[in-house]
What does this fold into?
Amino acid sequence: MTSEVVVHTEHLSRRFGELVAVRDVSLDVERGEIFGVLGPNGAGKSTTIRMLCGILDPSGGRGTVVGYDIQREPERIKERIGYMTQRFSLYEDLTVEENLAFYSGIYGIGRRARRTRIDEVARTTGLDARRRQIAGTLSGGWKQRVALACATIHQPPLLFLDEPTAGVDPVSRREFWDQIHRISSGGTTVLVTTHYMDEAERCHRIAFIFGGSLLDVGTPAQVVSRRGLRVAEVRVDRPLDAALALREHPGVDEVAHFGNDLRVAARGGADPEALALEVLGPRGVRVLESRSTRTTVEDAFVSVVRSQERAS
It folds into this structure.
């Protein structure tokens, strides 16, 4: 990874009538990094991506993508990026190879170079054996793989992935992320939106978006550390009663059910195991077992969202 900035925005915003979908987003994305944009549905992730791709004009602010201004030079941006959505923009009545040939033509790859590039992409993405298969007959994971190949056929310096793994099975998701890291290691910058928190752990840096606003940016470890949470898994004999009691305590940030186990996140560096004993003992709820565990990006994200909801 280098310090070359591929995406730069200053106070970017977008309105749809009275609705402010994106507000005051300022960020930099560097060459070769996998940058994750995380948020719940309706948070403004896709609107932000579409502005950066030159598809939507911003209502305010400014930005550059691969060196081009997003307002004045959107067509130049579109030539230099790859773009893939959760809908896998394939022609399902064409074969895999015909899809690759179509997209290579759309992206301006010359006829002489086209065959070489299709062969290379089919080989590196594991599509060689399926080149003559009709795209519509592929499983979701294979369609995803073809869509990624089509989006990168022209070797763009920047790849946008908008919720690319929605509805895809866990094995295909892992294989997809292996492909993303391979692409990134070759110097391509990848900007991916997702609401899967485990995928955030696979990114070099992440940004939290909620209500159209950018809440935090950093490495997964940095954004987790800034929340100051400690987490424990606590097994109790009455999990519903325990959860209700713990949620009333001001030191508890979040309680989540996992069968008879509760995942308890405590604020301000407090010990969640000691806190559980303190709260549940007087209520007659027995703590059968407990252990501290790693604080995840999901813990941090839920904490950020909950604090924003309380403030609004």
